[in-house]
Every structure is written in C-alpha cells, then in structure tokens.
Amino acid sequence: MEEDVKESASDKYSLRGRVFSRLREDILNGKYDEGVELREIAIGEELGVSRTPVREAFRQLELEGLIRIIPNKGAYVVGISDKDVRDIYILRSRLEGLAARWAVDHITNEQLEEMEENVYLAKFHTEKGHLEQMFELDNRFHEILYEACGSKILEHQLKDYHQYVLRIRKKTLASAKRGPQSNLEHEAILEAIKNKNADDAERLANEHMINAYRNMIDNGLIKPD
Amino acid sequence: MEEDVKESASDKYSLRGRVFSRLREDILNGKYDEGVELREIAIGEELGVSRTPVREAFRQLELEGLIRIIPNKGAYVVGISDKDVRDIYILRSRLEGLAARWAVDHITNEQLEEMEENVYLAKFHTEKGHLEQMFELDNRFHEILYEACGSKILEHQLKDYHQYVLRIRKKTLASAKRGPQSNLEHEAILEAIKNKNADDAERLANEHMINAYRNMIDNGLIKPD
DNA sequence: GCCCGAGGGATTGTATACAATGATACAAGA
DNA sequence: TCTTGTATCATTGTATACAATCCCTCGGGC
After folding, report:
1. Taking CB atoms and an 8 Å limit, are A153 and B91 in contact across chains?
2. What CA–CA distance (Å, rounded) separates A69 from A171?
3. What one-character DSSP code corresponds to residue A74?
4. How far, CA to CA in Å, does A83 sit from each of A26, A90, A224, B176, B181?
5. Residues of chain B found within 8 Å of residue A10, distances taken between Cβ atoms
C-alpha cells in the first residue's frame, strides 16, 4: 500500500525522484525518529546511489518541512508535533469546506462516478474490517475532492496537509471505530455535491474534518491543546 | 530593497543559497517571463558557480512552484495566472484572519513593538511617496503577523502565499493610491491585537485581504473571475 | 582540575567528468 | 512533398574528486 499519495512533479523514475519518494515515505511512516541525522553517504549506499541525487532530494525534503538542514552540519528529521497536527486540522477544516463548495461547480462526471464508487466500496470494506483498503479509499475520497475543486492552488495545499498527517491518520483508522461514521459523512458530502448544494457541501466537509479531529483526540492519538 | 522577503532555512551564504534566492527574486521580479527555459550552465556562468548548486536550487524552486522541471529536458519558469492570484487571495482571506486571531494570544513584546514601529514608519514613507520603503514595510507587517500567530504551519503557509503574489503586489502598491488606506487597516489590526480583541483582529485582517484583492481588480491588475 | 588550542577524522559544499537522454538537421526513399 | 531514420549536438542525470567546515579529542599551560 505504499504508493505515493501525492505524486510529485519530479520524475518518478529518476534516482533523485526515487530517493525523494522513499525518504518521504520512510519519514512519514516513522522509520526515522524525530531528530535523527540523515547522512548523505549512508542514505546513498542504502539506496545504491551516489550523494548527488541524495543531496537534491534533501533540498526538496527540507522545503516540505520534513527535514531540517543545518549548513555544513547535517540533515535532521523534523517530527510532527501534536501541535502541528492540531494546526493542520484547523486549517483543513477551513479549507476543506471551500474545496467542497468549489467542487459543486467544477466536478467532472468521471470524478463524480469515482466518488460514488469510492463510497460504495468503502461500505463493503468497512463491514469486512479491511483496514488497509479503508485507509486507501478514505485517502482517495479526499483526493478526488481536492482534484475536483478546480483550483490548482487549493488542491496542492490540501494534498500537502493530507500527506503531512498521514502517519497519524493511519493510526486513527486502525484504532477507532470511526469507519462507519466517516463513510456516512462522505456519502452526505457526495450527495450535497450531486445536488449542487454548495452550502451543504461546505458545511458537511467542514464538520467532517472537525469530527475526524475530535476522534483523534478522543482516542488519545494526539493531546488536546 | 532586494533582501529576502522570506528567509529560507538554508544557508544564506552558501552558493546554492545565493543561487536560490537570486533566481527566485529574478522570477518574481519578472526578469524571466513565463515559459522561459533556464539552463543550468547558463545560470551557473551568470552567477559564477558550477552546475551543482544551480541544480539544487532548481529542485527547491520547483517545489515552490516557481519553475517546472521536465525530466531530461529542462526547467521552465511557471507563470502566475490571474486565477492563481484570485485563489490565493481567497485562501489568504480565510487564513490571514486566523493568523490575526491567534496572534492576539501569542504575539511577543518585541513583535508588538516592531509592528508599532512599522505602522509609524509606513505613515512617514507613504506621505513622502517612497514606494520601495512602503512595499518593504507592508511585506514586513504581514510577516510579523505570521510570525506572531504561534503556528509554524500557518506561518509557513501564509509566507508562501505572500511570496507567491509578490510580483503582482509590487504593481499594486506602485500603481494605486491604496497606501494610506492600507496603512489605516494595518493600524486597526494592530490596535485590535493590542487590545486582545480576537474577533476584531480576525475580522479586520480578513477585510484587509479582501480590500487588497478588490483594489487589484479595480486597478485592472488582474481580471475578475 | 580546568581552560584553551592544535590536529585529525568525518561530513558537507562545490566542481568536474562521464553517461544518458532528448532535440535537431538532413538525407534517403516512397 | 512528405515521411522516416540516423547522426550529431546540446542538455540534463549521476558519480566522483577535491575543498571547506565542523566536531571531537588530546595535550600543554595555568
């Protein structure tokens, strides 16, 4: 299930692209703990490449905020604090509704169909308790929404945040019984978009975010402020 | 006036850091038109460095969305469309208010003092018609606000957007008589923060963004939707 | 014992050499 | 004329060599 949630504009098949994707994945999945120093040579050897592509990947990771590079010293993994997660959920609750509102006017038939299929399938996998599939479908539902909003800027932004909280989100789905409720909320958002009801779509998407956030706190996945 | 508006975590004094800052500046200032191809060697020669730091700078610029790298082909300057600007201002109007709200609780005395000095100085330079200084002070005012909000995530986000619309913003200040009005709005935001009035701070910062946006449209700097 | 500075090793920063890829021009054939 | 294949060149992708910097240790001096 480790495919890229957010595809990069960079070449997926260049060495640098592979290093970049791989490192990001590893960091988000918690392979490297916060504060760990990443050495160019070590990473390069592990992936079978020289320092050059590793260095370029580092620069990108730094800009994504996943590592911090101290000049002439080293690259250190930046952790995601509870505060970061809280902040992101608050921002998402403000922006996700906007995306849903805009999607009402910009969603294509293909996207609508994929969303319907997504909701339908999610119900199935939730009943069966297939956690991985639930996680993937949930990811994809939000991605479709982002892609359907008709704004490259907003899409990019929300995908970024989405990616960023991947780690904690995985825990959420695994540990909680939120699956069924989340599915219902997705379905309601989908209905609002289908009915071209922008106000409902925005409100529901908004609430969906807030509920997800509350759920994380209730399950002790992050500490409340 | 060409100092960095947004300082990078990277070394300002490394060759790569210099190439990065310089290129970003040049792109935002319109030295390179949309679609122009940037060649590693040419840029390197122009700045007196080899391809290595140039390449690393390219990777960063791509992630900032300022250039687009097509693998094995080249790096091309990405333009900012009117739609991008519109989208950004809408997002900013949603987020800038949040930053002001949070700043009420998190701003430090130093930041408050710098803001007061900023507002005071801005009045002076506006009366004198010093466009460059007005521009810098306006930039800085918003930066202080972002830094004062107490959220690295939101700060990073807003600085990104801020940076992104630099080009058009420079035109705005130069062409319009919005200076005095903008100063008044800054002052009102500052007052609200000083008085710990979060609701006012949010509303005023919000309106400030919307006014700036309207002003751009009224002056024909971007086309309305 | 404590401070300070020199030295050496490890790591990053930069330049350059080489490989791979893509663009272009031009010629042969239909 | 148009298409297509090929050779060549420009440019990017990667590896490696060298320079600069940092960190840590180990003595010397007090």
Report:
1. yes
2. 28
3. E
4. 21, 11, 9, 40, 36
5. 59, 62, 69, 71
The pLDDT tens digits for B163-199 are 888 877 777 666 657 888 999 999 999 999 999 999 9
Q: What's the pLDDT band for B6 if we cut at 50, 70, 90?
A: very low
Q: What are phi and psi of A182, to 5 degrees?
A: -60, -40
Q: Which residues of B touch A156 (CB under 8 A)?
A: 65
* Sequence-ordered strand ranges (E) for A79-221: none
Report d(CA A16, CA A53) in Å as an integer.
Answer: 4
Q: Using only the alpha carbons of chain B, give its radius of gyration.
A: 18
Cα–Cα–Cα angle for B170, B171, B176, rounded to 5 degrees: 110
Does residue B152 contact residue B100 with C-beta atoms inside 8 Å? no
Radius of gyration of chain A (CA): 18
Whole-number Å distance between alpha carbons of A40 and A56: 10
How far apart are alpha carbons B161 and B139 in whole angstroms? 12
> How far is the C-alpha of A33 from the C-alpha of A58, rounded, in Å?
16
Which residues are B75's β-sheet partners?
A: B38, B69
In this structure, is the CB of residue A50 within 7 Å of any atom belonging to strand D? yes
How far apart (Å, rounded) are the C-alpha atoms in residues A82 and A222?
6
Tens-digit pLDDT profile for residues A166-209: 777 777 666 657 888 999 999 999 999 999 999 999 999 999 99
Check whether residue B18 has its CB closer than 7 Å to nucleic acid strand D: no
- Angstrom distance (rounded) from CA B93 to CA A98: 12
Query: Going edge to edge, which strands form the sheet with A67-70?
Result: A37-38, A74-77, A67-70
The alpha carbon of residue B172 and the mean position of all alpha carbons in its chain are separated, in whole angstroms, by 13
CA dihedral for B18, B21, B27, B31, sign (positive or negative) = negative
Token pair belonging to A198: 């922008």
Give the type of residue at B76: Y
pTM: 0.81
Separation CA B144–CA B111 (nearest Å): 7
> What CA–CA distance (Å, rounded) separates A129 from B179?
60
Q: How far apart are the first and last CA of chain B?
A: 33
Domains defined along chain A, listed by start: 15-77 (1.10.10.10), 82-218 (1.20.120.530)
Q: Residue B136: which of B148, B147, B121, B150 has the closest Cα?
A: B121
Do A6 and A159 touch, CB atoms closer than 8 A?
yes
